[in-house]
Each structure stands twice: as structure tokens, then as C-alpha cells.
Write a structure and sequence with these properties.
about 230 residues; alpha/beta; TIM Barrel; 8-stranded parallel beta barrel; 8 strands; elongated
């Protein structure tokens, strides 16, 4: 399983790259505005240089499929590790899978996003998406079972040896990460604020504190014995 960071915050990306935990990054217009990335092209190019060769997903900003197609082609030229995010449908409920298909036919990696059902994911994979992004938190908000959808989709992809990879996003809690991993997600895109909670545990801290105290006592005993022999 891979971990992507769901952020455009360069400091957070650099921080977790140093821990060896970052396999890629996903962004969207809301994330870019929140993290102060107002020049989408310049900011994306910078993130792509930082993460090269890891993938960086950047989302189209139009509701019109033809405009999405033009934007996706332009974005793909920004860097070789750009992945173009295209919603499965637009805000009017019209399919955007023709955009996914045409971009993928041109050799452009596509992350089909805003997916909330198995059927949407299946069609996105069939259309040629390299990644299908399931919004686990929003599925749960609507009474769905994200783990079941992830598991069923992974089984279907594996059965047919399909190359599309599942990204699970819309992470609301640390438990969401655990459930997605156990359900078989290829990738989980995690907001950076969850990683410190995942790595920390009060009993781990107490255990290390005990080790350090024992080490200090042992060193003191070694020093005392050495002094007695001299």
C-alpha cells in the first residue's frame, strides 16, 4: 500500500518525505487555496520537482468537459509526473468519462475523482483512469459502507488484472486510514495532520522513557565498576 499526502503544503510534504512515507501527493482547488497555492501552474511545477518521480494529482477547474480536456492536456505538459484529476461527473450529473478516456488514450495519467459508488469506480476504470479516487468519508456520510466498496472494487480489479489503482480519500479520522488499508486500498491519501496521530502512542512514549531510564542506570553502573577496577 502507498501513502499519498492530501495537501499542497510544501513544508508538510518535505517533513514527511524525510520520514520516507510519501509516495505521491493529491491536490484539488480547495486544498490549493487553503494552502496558499494561488498560481496553479507555478505551484504544481514546484511540487512536481520536489516529488519527482512521484505522482502529483492536480484537478481541472471547469464544469465543461471540453474545457476539462484542454486543461488536462495543458496540465500534463507542466511536468512528467503530473496526474490530471477529472471528476466522474460534473456538477450537473453529466458523465466526464469521455474526458478520462480521451486523455488516457493520449498517454496522460488520469485520476478520476469524486467517486462514491462501486459502479462509478468500475466505469472510471473501464474508461482508462490510472487511479480511481473513492471518497470514503462522504460515502459514510450518506450511509454507505466504504470498506465494502473498497474490498469489492479491489477484488474486481484483481480478478480481471486491471491496472487501475484505488485511491481512498476524504479521510476524516485515523480509523478511516486503518479501515481503508485493511479493505485493500492500493493508496490512501492522507491529510498531513493525521500522520502524527498515527505514529504516536502514549504507551510507546512510556516504554521508550523506561528504556532510557534503564540505559542511564546501566551506564552509571558500568562507570562505577570501571572506576572500581582502576
Amino acid at each position: 500500500m502507498q501513502i499519498f499526502l492530501d495537501t499542497a503544503n510544501r513544508q508538510e510534504i518535505e517533513r514527511w518525505l524525510a520520514h520516507g512515507l510519501v509516495d505521491g501527493v493529491t491536490t484539488n482547488p480547495s486544498i490549493c487555496v487553503r494552502d496558499g497555492l494561488y498560481d496553479l501552474e507555478e505551484g504544481t511545477r514546484g511540487l512536481c520537482r520536489l516529488l519527482d518521480p512521484r505522482p502529483v494529482s492536480v484537478e481541472v477547474t471547469s464544469n465543461d468537459p471540453e474545457q476539462m480536456l484542454g486543461q488536462g492536456r495543458a496540465m500534463a505538459r507542466w511536468a512528467p509526473n503530473v496526474v490530471v484529476k477529472v471528476p466522474v461527473i460534473n456538477q450537473d450529473g453529466l458523465s466526464c468519462l469521455s474526458v478520462v478516456h480521451r486523455l488516457s488514450q493520449e498517454g496522460i495519467a488520469v485520476n478520476c475523482t469524486a467517486i462514491l459508488s462501486f459502479n462509478q469506480a468500475l466505469l472510471a476504470a473501464k474508461a482508462g483512469a490510472s487511479y480511481v479516487s473513492l471518497f470514503a468519508g462522504r460515502m459514510a456520510d450518506e450511509g454507505g459502507n466504504p470498506s465494502e466498496v473498497i474490498r469489492n472494487l479491489r477484488d474486481w480489479l484483481d480478478r480481471w488484472a486491471h491496472p487501475a489503482r484505488i485511491i481512498v480519500g476524504s479521510i476524516r479520522t485515523v480509523l478511516d486510514v486503518q479501515l481503508a488499508a485493511l479493505a485493500g486500498a492500493h493508496i490512501i491519501t492522507i491529510p498531513p495532520q493525521f500522520l502524527p496521530r498515527m505514529v504516536d502512542h502514549k504507551y510507546s512514549r512510556e516504554t521508550v522513557r523506561g528504556f532510557n531510564a534503564d540505559a542511564e542506570r546501566a551506564l552509571a553502573e558500568f562507570a562505577a565498576r570501571a572506576a572500581g577496577r582502576s
